[in-house]
Design goal:
This protein is α+β, with helices and mostly antiparallel strands. It has helices at residues 9-15, 78-82, 85-98, 108-116, and strands at 2-5, 29-33, 49-53, 69-71. The chain starts with a strand and ends with a helix.
Length: 117
């Protein structure tokens, strides 16, 4: 069940007609509770709270590949979770694809500093 979906630039461009996409594609990221899983899914369970990235999140129910879902902590709101996937994917792409960041290039001290805020 989709509890929240985030609006992003792609949604605005579709809604304005700038992108020639179907309005069924509105919503690129969302969050909710898992109601069912396939028999080969082992990392996501029924009733897990998840955030996900998939086209067409502007709905109340949808089927999403398990690989597109990430469990969220009870302390995180569905609103916060729905707003994260696109931002995370953009940052990851920038660091890995554009900046060509590789394993070992960031020190443990830098990681701890980032985690502590």
């Amino acid at each position: 069940m989709v509890w929240r979906k985030a609006d992003n630039a792609q949604d605005v461009l579709i809604a304005l007609g700038v992108l020639d996409n179907s309005t069924r594609e509105l919503g690129l990221e969302g969050s909710g509770c898992v109601r069912a899983v396939g028999r080969n899914v082992h990392n996501i369970l029924v009733d897990d709270r998840v955030m996900f990235m998939a086209s067409g999140c502007f709905t109340t129910q949808m089927t999403v590949p398990a690989a597109a879902c990430v469990r969220i902590d009870e302390r995180m709101s569905f609103e916060e979770a729905a707003a994260m996937p696109c931002v995370y994917a953009t940052a990851a792409m920038a660091l890995m694809d554009k900046a060509q960041l590789r394993a070992g290039q960031v020190s443990e001290q830098s990681c701890r500093a980032l985690q502590s805020g």
